Amino acid sequence: MSFMLVKLLFVGLLVSYVNTFHLIVIGDWGDDNENQYRTARGMSALCQTVKCNGIISTGDNIYPAGVKSVNDPRFNTSWRNVYNLKGIQDKYWLMSMGNHDHDGNYKAQIEYTNVEPRWHLPSLWYDAQFQSGAIHLFSIDTVSIEKSVYDYKKQLQWLEDKLSKSKATWKVVFGHHPPVTGGKYAPGVPKTHYKIVPLLEKYKVDLYLAGHDHNLQHISKDDVRNEETKWIVDYVVSGGGGRKLAPKTANAENELMKRGYKLRFFRSQFGFVSLEFSKSDLLNVRYFEVTKPDTIEITYTFNRTKSAI
Ligand SMILES: [Zn+2]
User: Fold this and answer.
1) Position 259 in a domain
2) What's the CA-to-centroid distance between 146 and ligand 1, angstroms?
3) What is the CA(192)–ligand 1 centre distance, in A?
4) What is the dihedral of CA 212, 200, 52, 117, to 10 degrees?
5) Mean per-residue pLDDT over the chain, rounded
6) Residue 87 in domain
7) Considering the domain boundaries, does residue 5 fall inside one?
8) Separation of 214 CA from ligand 1 center, angstroms?
9) What's the CATH code of the domain at 185?
10) CA of 80 to the centre of ligand 1 (A)
11) Pairing with 50, which of 69, 72, 78, 228 sits 20 to 30 Å away (CA)?
12) Residue among 182, 172, 238, 240 nearest 204 (CA)
């Protein structure tokens, strides 16, 4: 009897292993400090236990002012030499840029895509598809939107065109600024909210991933508002990659509530988020904290199920 149970469990694990696609999401990390290194060790610990397919950066890759050139040593000290640990040393990074990256030579971070095969930032905005097109990722540059620079209108048109044509099961948009947040920038970064949220809802995007606020959050519209929009976007803030943490803003929950959003999870801790997609139409989102030395702890999790929508 116990042998059968073990065997069934083994088969179950094998099936889920083959069918899953697993991404780590980390933001606000390139500060060259112990908190960044500890978070990297947490990612390494997770990715030695379960298969990780890649890493998404929600921006602020290099503090305080990006890089000067494609040969800047900070590419090594803030990124390559930090995330060179077992389980993550060969992983592909899908980058976006934050305000601190734009304070330096932003073009050098784009050019670095041609130098380092694991660094993917071919342009200010781009898309990428995985699992035969079932997962469609869109990287946007919210700094362009917030500052109304770098052909931001062209970017918005590009995003709308791409989203409208996408046949993917899962659509995920990521960028630096959070349209809704309960932290330092509560209740949200205005232009990103005004310009991006209508597109996310219209084209049925599942997740929007951001950083900028240095904490870990999950926000989505409350049930009443869901009845109006008929579509639920889950907003994830993953900004605990190493830079000094930001607390929750007093009254943020009420301010979000006035706009129809519910702050479902907030922790001002270092850590990262993982997205586990399965072919059985399930997306499991998990929040990992590295509050204790060399220990990772799942402090929150939520699911999206396609069949239930
Ligand atoms: Zn930022």
Assistant:
1) yes
2) 12
3) 13
4) -70
5) 90
6) yes
7) no
8) 8
9) 3.60.21.10
10) 21
11) 78
12) 172
Confidence of residue 280 (pLDDT cuts 50, 70, 90): low
CB 86 within 8 A of CB 41: no
Ligand 1 centroid to residue 10 C-alpha, Å: 43
Give the separation between CA 18 and CA 39, rounded to whole angstroms.
27
Q: Which domain holds residue 160?
A: 19-308
Q: Could you tell me the distance, in angstroms and rounded to a whole number, from the CA of residue 213 to the centre of ligand 1? A: 7
Domain count of the chain? 1
Render pLDDT for 224-264 as a digit per residue (tens, 0 to 9): 555 555 688 999 999 999 999 999 999 999 999 999 999 99
Expressed in angstroms and rounded, the spacing between residue 216 Cα and the centre of ligand 1 is 14
User: Taking Cα atoms as reference points, which of 29, 33, 40, 25 lies closest to residue 85?
Assistant: 40
Domain annotation covers residue 233: yes
For residue 285, the CA-to-ligand 1 centroid distance in Å is: 23
190 three-class SS? helix
Distance 304 CA to ligand 1 centre (A): 27
Contact indicator for 302, 308 with CB cutoff of 8 Å: no
Per-residue pLDDT of 186-203, as tens digits, reads 999 999 999 999 999 999
How many angstroms does the Cα of residue 78 sit away from the middle of ligand 1?
16
Structure confidence by residue, pLDDT tens digits, 72-103 = 999 999 999 999 999 999 999 999 999 999 99
pTM: 0.92
